[in-house]
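Illustration: DUF5673 domain-containing protein.
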Amino acid sequence: MEIFNLILLVFFAAACVWLIRILLRQKKAIEIYCCFWTASRIMILIAASLCFLPFLALDFSPMTILRSVLMAVVIIMFALISDGLGSEGFMYMGSSVPFEAITEYDVKEVKNKCKVVMTVKETDKKGKTSLTQLTFDFKKEQNEEITRRLKAAIGKKYRRMKLER
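Result:
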């Protein structure tokens, strides 16, 4: 059991370092953040609380405590990764989406949100190209600022688009 805890500890420590790098990069890149509290983030935070289930079995060994705490920290850090708009493009789940990769976009007001829908052209390591539709939810008050920035950066790619579910 101790070797299993040690392997998990090393894995989660590496994940923690990787997520710190992503969080620092997003801090520099994002100027307008997307809506933060979503159902997915709440579920991720519930998962973080489940890391402490071994304590219900009264397993209070130092490795188990350390592993559980590190797992919870990694899950919480993952939940803190934000999406948003910056001067060079968008950040989506810790990855950069430059304006050049966007083939078309649309800005819509839906209920109390400003939704940005876009098609992104991605090329993998083998040179295969694919199109992916991304949706970003911003606050309704940010609609004018986002529209202005997108027109300035990639205005000629504006298209009316359907919102995928």
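Reading the tokens back as a structure: The CA atoms of residues 7 and 74 lie 15 Å apart.
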